[in-house]
Amino acid sequence: MLSVLFAVLTAAANGSASVLQRRAAAQAPDSSAMRVSLITGLLRRPVWLAGVGMVVVAALCQATALATGPISVVQPIFVIELPITLLLAGVVFRRRLPTRTWVGVGAVTAGLALGMAAAAPAHGGTRAAGWAWLAALPVTAGFEALLISAGLRTRGRPRAALFGLAAAGAYALTAALMKDAMARLGGGAAQFFTTWQLYGTAVAGVGALFLLQNALQAGSLAASQPMLTLGDALISTAYGVVLYGEHIRTGWWTLAELVALAVIAAGIVELAHSLAESESGGGGAVGASRRAPA
Fold first, then answer.
1. Does the pTM of the predicted model rise above 0.90?
2. What is the mean pLDDT of the chain?
């Protein structure tokens, strides 16, 4: 299935981007949080620009995936982004991954397979109704404002987690807008470039990138990445059902879906715990990169 292939490629590109951007953003001072100076400073770091390049690759792959499949299929596949991120972090930050990390990778992968098989996401519409956007956008804005406000009142890992979830919401909105925009391609270039969803995708994407940099600057990947990855999958699925009428199996299948979600969550927690332990140590830990040259 073409959409599944490009979803996997998107996850790999996003995982690469997170590691590269984390390496650069971790060195930014706390005083730059939620300021434009955070981005202007990062623009001078080649490793961060390489991460942005991977974001562009991910966006192209994601657009292809969403144009050929439902959001509720494409976005949940992104949960494998966390295992990919941690495996890449082990290479970039030169640390050996313990056995428990591989157990977490297996749990996330198995949970995703079970969840997708149980939910059996089905196509809905290719476009969202205008009234649906009128309801979804204010709700999303309120959700984002609440998370950002709470994040600014705390520091460290709680801030990274809250900003990570805010970034997840923004990335999910970007995907929902992108799918609607891609559906306009059938009407020709004129219709595609004059639809508000296209420019809404750009605005939401820039906002998501900004929130992600703040999440990465505020704390470790162990705090921000689980919220980003699982949050994106769940919020995107909600968008798919509400905006596009995509179908998720319910009834007795819900039990299997909850089990799958629990397995994925356990795997993510295990991966995050493993990474947190490595960050608290010395040597090649990810945490040590906060003082390493970019």
1. no
2. 82
